[in-house]
Design a protein that fits this description.
There is one protein chain. The protein is of the alpha+beta class. It has one domain: 4-Layer Sandwich (Anthranilate synthase), CATH 3.60.120.10. Helices cover 30% and strands 32% of the residues. The protein is built from eleven helices and 20 strands. It has a 20-stranded antiparallel sheet that branches. α5 crosses α11. The longest helix is centred in the middle third of the chain and has 19 residues. The radius of gyration is 21 Å and the shape is globular. It starts with 6 loop residues before the first strand and ends with a helix.
């Protein structure tokens, strides 16, 4: 079969147009049963690729029932050298490590893995001065259709009361047991999460994403539709970025609340910078990522470009480190994913053991939470986020959920870990208050 030809056209943007054109793109995309929108929200993180991208319509779709999806991904990209967008759920770990299992029932409905070659890709450059459309259809007609799309007014979201799968007393008890595992030498850090949910909810997912993206704009935000499943994501964390032969990751470990008082907010930020526990968490995961990248990188090329960087977001301060390396000749980008997924910031260390403990002590299947969404360029560069600070909606069973948590170490104080988990949950729940 002859490969479809992409037609490419670029259109100038005035700086004030970027916000409006993003909304028009999102409303235009609603006609497709599969699309992924990625937004940097005017942040300028290191190694930024685009301000935003929209991939709409799927011409080639591969899901987890296609066998080894990373091998399939490599084969398709090698054959077609085209854009590919998609996701890996956290539970893809069971494919990478066949001894692992997920004993809990999934609720979001997303396939364990799914990628697609989009019919149309729209991307806004980092300066927000150019919109480029790459499509199997006429890009000028698409540009016209996008501009003629109405920006739908927000409206009120439903008032919702979320329930927790693990209640506070159980949560505190689980942390006590995890600290014993650490004390016994089973592991030295573990990411422990809890699910919040509402049942029988009717809502407009794009409206939810707009509300979340307004209150909590993040550099790796995403809005994803996979048929009748939706993700609204306000992630501040990058999983993997490949540019040429350079690969990097930017794990987050260390969270502190914001304060309306500027002086107090600066004080909280400085406390996070110097917090021994938070720094210990961060350096453990940074070291784990160094080891993961070393499996695909040239010996001696691994570099910690930034350690304990403090970054401020609307809801929280975060401690972020940057690890990079130069990939070995002949190593494919799928190998970098294969040997580093799931990301250490969402597991802990040692990774295999803590993934067993996560399944034992958590009470929900993670599904897409703590997985990743992102894109692959025709030239083989990639950018994938870490799916945190996200809401998931199944349009069929009307189930709305999120998961939040934190890293547990031996020095963890159970009550403070509960408060950190609830701080992250509040950032999501408040749009329905």
């Amino acid at each position: 079969m002859q490969q479809l030809q992409r037609h490419i056209a670029s259109f100038p943007l005035a700086p004030v147009q970027a916000i409006a054109i993003k909304q028009k793109m999102l409303n235009w995309a609603k006609q497709f049963s599969i699309f992924l929108f990625l937004d940097s929200n005017n942040y300028k993180p290191a190694y930024i690729g685009y301000e935003s991208l929209l991939a709409a319509g799927g011409t080639d779709i591969i899901n987890d029932d296609d066998g080894d999806i990373l091998l399939k991904l490599k084969q398709i990209h090698t054959a077609k050298s085209d854009w590919i967008f998609g996701h890996l759920c956290y539970d893809y770990k069971n494919t990478l490590e066949p001894q692992l299992i997920s004993t809990h029932t999934g609720t979001t409905g997303f396939p364990v893995a799914g990628f697609f070659i989009p019919r149309t890709v729209c991307h806004i450059n980092s300066a927000q001065t150019i919109l480029t459309i790459e499509s199997f259809d006429d890009p000028y007609n698409i540009y016209k259709a996008i501009n003629e799309t109405d920006i739908v007014a927000g409206g009120l979201l439903p008032k919702l009361q979320f329930s927790s799968v693990i209640k506070k007393e159980q949560y505190l008890e689980a942390i006590s047991k995890l600290r014993k595992h650490i004390g016994d030498g089973d592991c030295y850090e573990i990411n422990f999460c809890n699910e919040g949910y509402c049942e029988n909810v009717s809502l407009e997912p794009l409206q939810v994403f707009n509300a979340l993206n307004t209150i909590s704009p993040a550099p790796f935000a995403a809005y994803y539709r996979h048929i009748d499943k939706y993700m609204m994501c306000a992630s501040p964390e990058r999983y993997l970025r490949k540019i040429g032969d350079k690969i990097l990751s930017q794990p987050i470990k260390g969270t502190a609340r914001r304060d309306k008082d500027t002086l107090k907010d600066d004080e909280i930020k400085e406390q996070l910078r110097n917090d021994i526990k938070e720094r210990a968490e961060n350096v453990m995961i940074t070291d784990l990522m160094r080891n993961d990248l070393a499996r695909v990188c040239e010996t001696g090329s691994i570099n910690v470009e930034e350690l304990f960087g403090i970054y401020t977001f609307p809801q929280v301060h975060q401690m972020i480190s940057t690890v990079s390396g130069i990939m070995k000749a002949g190593i494919h980008f799928t190998d970098a994913i294969r040997y580093s997924f799931p990301m250490g910031s969402m597991t802990g260390a040692p990774k295999y053991k803590v993934m067993q403990l996560i399944d034992k002590y958590e009470s929900s299947r993670r599904d897409l939470f703590s997985g990743t969404v992102g894109y692959i360029t025709p030239g083989g560069d990639i950018d994938f986020n870490v799916i945190i600070r996200s809401l998931f909606y199944n349009e069929v069973n009307k189930y709305l959920s999120y998961q939040t948590g934190g890293a547990i170490t031996y020095d963890s104080i159970a009550e403070k870990e509960w408060e950190e988990m609830r701080l992250k949950a509040w950032a999501l729940e408040q749009i329905f208050a």
